[in-house]
Amino acid sequence: MSLLLLFIFLLPQETQRSLTLREVATYAGADDALFIAPECISGWSDGSFVVSDRMSYTLTRLNGSGKLLARTGARGTASGEFRSPGPLDCFGDHLAIADFASTRIQIFGRDLTHRTTLLSGGAVVDLRYDPQGGLWVSAHTKAGKRLLKYDAEGTLRASLTPRNISGKPFHDVFLCSISRSGEVFLAYLVRNVIEVWDTSGTFLRQFTVPGLPARSPERTMNREDSPRSIRVPAGNIVQSISVDPVGNLYVLAADYAENPGRDVTVLTPEGTLLSLFTLPAPASHIWISPLGHLFSIQRRDASVARYAFDKREI
Amino acid sequence: MRTRPLSGARSGGIQRTFTVLANLIVPLLTPGIGGLFLLSGLGKVLALSAFRETVRALTGLSEPLGSLVALTVITMELLCGTGLIIRRGVRIASILLALLVSLFLVILVSAVYENRVLPCNCFGTLGVSLSMPAQIVLDFLLLNALALLLFLHRSKDRMPGRMRPLQTLSIVLTTTMLLYLEAEIVLAAWSRSPGARGGTLSTLISQVEAACPRYRSGSGNRALILLRFEDFNCPPCHDDFLLLSDSLRATLPADALGRVAGAVAASGSSPDRLEPRVQLWKAAARVAFPLLAVPDTLFSEAGIGRSTIAVLNSAGETLFYGTLPIGPASRGEVISLLSGSPSRTAGPP
Lengths: 314, 349
Description:
The complex is a heterodimer. By secondary structure, chain A is mainly beta. Chain A is built from 1 helix and 26 strands. The two termini of chain A are 26 Å apart. Chains A and B meet through loops of A and helix 2, helix 10 and helix 12 of B.
């Protein structure tokens, strides 16, 4: 018996980290009415960040203390205007922003002046810059869902078909996030699969997020424009993903977690569970800043919260 | 064979009554119901493609399966209707038709509760168009008539003479309960049907009228747009509303635009907190009619689960009722209702 206990004690165990969140700031709640419907967030290592707002059709840049640095955008289709600003990412001195579910990606400077517009090969679901400035786009192309890579000039350099593409339109939607070391993480919205690729377009591995179901259940949706009903996922498995400065992946669980929109699982790039924590309020999007702070968009009151981590090995 | 005089006399009396009733009613019911189904079946044969589309809309079946179901329904109506008229196989015809009518009822009631409007092609080319509550009432009447026919036809042969008081009581109680249930379903469906929405929207309309004097003073058809803030997480809903808003701004004259207003609610958010966001969005989206933040409870009370557009005439009757995204055809209908004749009467959906 004592030998068994000794064996268990000596057995190498995975180190898990208990992460405690400390709220640093909240930007523009409903009372301030700075945002109407914040959609996505990204920023730079100087602490400033940009928020895309789907219903004010704007980009807003704030510094770490919440001071408004710049704002641009209006409803429309001209340069610098938006139909519904969605996913965005910052790199170097510029940022890329896509109109939700459209092919249009606009490039802005850090001061939010419009620089150029490029058209993606399909409706953009998500986009991220890699460490070399290549722009990776999760897109719904005519051929299905693809991962497209554009260079800094907007030339298509690669079109990749992720490993788990099934051909079913709703099942194949995936988000992407890229680490500083150049690992490209793809997370399917309605299936519990994370794929990891490198920036040269080579598939590296895949893993699942512990504690989440394999896939979303389905429901029948009646279409008003067609007599045929269709089967659609009843909810999402993953809400949002982000990679921290050391390359760990943060997965915000969606509808099937114990705390929907609040539970965040932290995994190593190899998929080993590091930690699990719960956000104080439901979030629609998370982003880990270059300074290691977690930003969350709280759709209910149209605010952005910034948290710092207090870490402890367990 | 000896019989007990007292109970025999009583049962004989009941049997006589039933026989008289059956002899009176069955000859009236069989050609009446049979004729109705025969007429309905013939009308559907003459408008086969329209009926096939209706079946597909009701069931969501594929084209071949939908056609098969449509043909089955028509065949059943024709055969069973003829059977009732010539009094052949009355029992089996009544049972089959009752099953068919029950199926129609389930589809109709569920459609009303899901805020879906189903086209009425019950009589095919005969051009009889019934509103959904009217279809439900007609189907319940038919179901009751078929049940009565089945009962009397059966009782004529053998039932009443052997029926005990407890059996009679249970039949009366069951019938009462079923009729009560039917009445409840009809009333609930009537109050939820698009044509009756004007009544349930009255509190919301009053709120909007209080805040927007132009909306109150306008004569003619009015549009009330009820927006759930959460629905704008769905880009098609967002785009569809903006397309409608742009079309209204571009096509309606100022007086007609004054007869459009919107109320916005968000779950868990008070109007005071929502109002600044609504007004910012209204300005950013260039919405040309007033939008008012209202308590979410008003939407719940009116049964508004999803963002909805209603067009009402000056009498408060609903001319159009649709949930976002309504699509280009319905958008055209809304614009035409608002820009057309001052007031149109509510017709069947």
